[in-house]
Design goal:
The structure is a single chain. The chain has 374 residues and is an alpha/beta fold. The protein is 22% helix and 25% strand. It contains nine helices and 21 strands. The strands form four sheets. It has a 15-stranded mixed beta sheet, covered by helices on one side. α9 links the parallel β20 and β21. α5 crosses α6 and α7 runs parallel beside α8.
Length: 374
């Protein structure tokens, strides 16, 4: 530690299995850090208020994970901070106190908190008005949904990309939480921009992004019967404002959900993982002109009246983990028909799939660009 005065980046990791929350040496904390730019502490206990003898004029990046510290230490309220991450720390902070802290960080560009919040006390004076963070670009909160809502309601971050993550034990929680966020941020909610979902027997994950670059994520680590028949794409199409949806990624797709996606007039990018998702898509993609215009699910978007084919706006298709060559034949048939109708696919990507050039070659005749990894 004798060279701390010249250090620009300091990272200390103390494994909790061997040294749980061990206080760092007084000698280390007493040394001035005039050139220190970044500090990352994992499983450490910060006991001193006068850290680095109060000398850390260039410190801009601070990451504290699984640490024990008081939230009023100068290290946290450093006005030069541009990046602050507080993750799973042992002492929690009230929403009101965190808002005051963020208000004191005018240079902050990036902030992440995970499981650090607790309810504000009724005796704690509230923040007078919404805390404005004009420079912040990324803001992430992973906590109890009500605490995350309280935090975001107290902030005004016009340039921020906001991410919130929540665990959801039952599908009904997803619907309620999304409804709460939509009500809280209705003035910023211009519809869903993208959907992502992944489900397997032990893990379920769903996320949506709005056109304001806000993402809401939900995860379930342990499979339960309540999720076994849950189809997030179908749920989203029937419950969320998806009329402007442009991008979707899923490994679980039913024919009904594929038909709902096919009605969306602005969906131009689709990523399907596994043949169980690809086959329903091919079935929905197949119908040709029938004179009946599809309609938007939640509202009329004013698209031209000649809109008649499913997935008409689709330009980019990514297929992941394709193993059966027969699937390419079905895909070739519908893409050939669409090419003849003047709405051919622009880009087809095959990833982590069984590639047989004899199956791929015909696709290059009906798709502008075909790319794949072997």
């Amino acid at each position: 530690m004798s060279q701390l005065g010249k250090a620009q980046l300091l990272s200390i990791y103390l494994p909790s299995e061997t040294t749980p929350l061990r206080p760092l040496s007084e000698a280390m904390w007493m040394q001035p850090a005039p050139t220190l730019l970044g500090l990352r502490l994992d499983h450490a206990s910060i006991c001193r208020r006068n850290i680095f003898s109060g000398v850390f004029p260039q410190l801009t990046e601070l990451h504290l994970a699984f640490c024990e510290f008081d939230w009023d230490i100068p290290l946290i309220s450093n006005p030069t901070s541009t990046s602050l991450h507080t993750v799973y720390n042992t002492k929690k902070v009230t929403v009101t106190r965190l808002l005051r802290l963020l208000q004191s960080l005018p240079c902050l560009v990036d902030y992440e908190e995970s499981h650090c919040l607790e309810r504000s006390s009724i005796h704690e004076p509230p923040v007078a008005r919404c805390v404005r963070l004009p420079n912040i670009k990324t803001l992430s909160t992973s906590d109890d949904e009500n605490l995350s809502l309280d935090l975001l309601r107290g902030l005004e971050a016009p340039q921020a990309s906001i991410t919130t993550s929540h665990g959801a034990r039952y599908p009904s929680v997803v619907k309620r939480t999304l409804s709460d966020f939509q009500d809280a941020f209705g003035h910023k909610w211009n519809g869903v921009h993208s959907l992502r979902s992944r489900q397997d027997p032990k893990y379920c994950e769903f996320s949506i992004s709005t056109t304001e670059t806000t993402t809401y994520s939900f995860s379930v680590l342990t499979f339960s019967d309540s999720w076994s028949h849950f189809n997030f794409v179908k749920f989203a199409c029937q419950n969320l404002p998806v009329q402007n949806l442009q991008s979707c990624s899923t490994n679980r797709l039913s024919v009904e959900a594929a038909n709902l996606l096919g009605r969306l007039r602005w969906l131009n990018k689709l990523r399907l993982i596994g043949e169980s998702a690809v086959q329903p898509f091919i079935a929905a993609l197949g119908p040709t002109w029938n004179g009946n215009d599809p309609v938007d699910i939640n509202e009329d978007s004013g698209a031209p009246s000649d809109y008649a084919l499913p997935f008409r706006a689709l330009q980019q298709l990514a297929l992941v983990k394709m193993e059966a060559p027969a699937a390419y034949n079905g895909l070739l048939g519908v893409l050939t028909s669409r090419k003849a109708s003047g709405i051919g696919l622009k880009n087809l990507t095959l990833s982590k799939s069984k590639i047989i050039m004899a199956d791929i070659a015909p696709l290059t005749l009906v798709v502008d660009v075909v790319s794949f990894d072997a």
